[in-house]
Amino acid sequence: MASQSDEPEAPAPVAAQSEDGGLSGRALWDEAGVEPVEIALPGGVALTLRAYRKASTLTPTEIDESDDDDPFEARKRAAARDDDEEVIVDDEFQALLAEGDAGDKDRKDGDEPDPADFEDEADETAEAQADDEEVPAFLSHKGKLIAFKTPESLVSFIRSGAPHDLAQLDTWAALADRVQSTDIDPLAEDRYELDLVVENLRGGHDTWDLPLLIAAGEVARDLGHALRLKPVILALSPGSPLDDLDESLRSAESGGMGGFFGRRRLKKIGAQQASLGWRSVIGKISAAVDWRD
Q1: How many Å apart are CA 13 and CA 26, to the nearest integer?
Q2: How far is CA 119 from the centre of its chain?
Q3: In this model, does residue 4 exceed pLDDT 50?
């Protein structure tokens, strides 16, 4: 009888491979650092891609900023143009020169810059380094989420060489060369049902689906940041009613005493207010989807 030590060892797991010998399935996505995502919207179920990278390694998506899109930004640009075009008449110019000469005379030759003057610059540099965290990027172009209804259409686009924001990833070329339609199978945690959020909130506190609403908040924040959707970013910003709702949902989901207090806070949140807020957020996201099939 063979001893336990003589028994053959179980073979090590082998990464899934495609027909051409390359990686496929989850191994392909893990190597590329990209993931397929499914987002159910009122206009249909969207298949797209998402990646997380350091902010310093990504060039933000281009967006079309026309005067009609944002009247406040249009006013700022107009005011800036007016300032640039303002002409100083001779008397004003001479007065400014005189003020400049007086300032130079007040300064002694031996005066050295005060180090305190540069403290703000140092603080800004430290903040910039701290802010270099992982941020979301989607298969998008000029502020529009590129979405598909079938895996085949998505793969066809990936291989087409058409411009999009994920093309800047150093792993993109290898992914585009290997991906197959059978690889487009989002994980359960990468499937979002935004189309159910408003109806669920309208049902009242006792019927709220906590995992559904929490997941919706996560993907909405990702989309708002990646697509630079200002209304979505503001609606979900810290301290906003929808952010308070999200925190209460997470507390209630955690269980224990935290869950008890979270459920109490949820009871104080107006179902109508929450549903109207989310309706606006989903409307902005839906308007930023570019269906390609």
Answers
A1: 13
A2: 31
A3: no
Domain with 258, as residue range(s), is 19-67+136-291
Half-sphere exposure of 187 toward its Cβ, with a 13 Å CA cutoff?
A: 10
How much is the pTM? Answer: 0.71
280 is a domain residue: yes
Domain assignment present for 126: no
Give bridge partners of residue 178 from the DSSP assignment: none
In this prediction, residue 246 carries a pLDDT of 92
Burial 97-106 (b: 16+ CB within 10 A, else e): eeeeeeeeee
153: which 2 tokens?
Answer: 């259409």
Q: How many separate domains does the chain show?
A: 1
Q: How confident is the model at residue 1 (pLDDT cuts 50, 70, 90)?
A: very low
The Cα 160–Cα 284 span in angstroms is 28
Predicted confidence (pLDDT) per residue in 60-88, tens digit = 888 866 534 444 454 455 555 555 444 44
What residue type is 34 in one-letter code? V
- Position 3 in a domain: no
Q: 219-250 burial string, b = 16+ CB within 10 Å, else e? A: bbbbbbbbbbbeebbebbeeeeebebbbebbb
**Phi, psi for 51 (deg, rounded to 5):** -140, 155
For residue 115, what are its two tokens? 């180090």
Query: In which residue are the tokens 């026309």 written?
Result: 66
Q: What is the mean pLDDT of residues 270-276?
A: 89
- Per-residue pLDDT band for 8 (boundaries 50, 70, 90) equals low
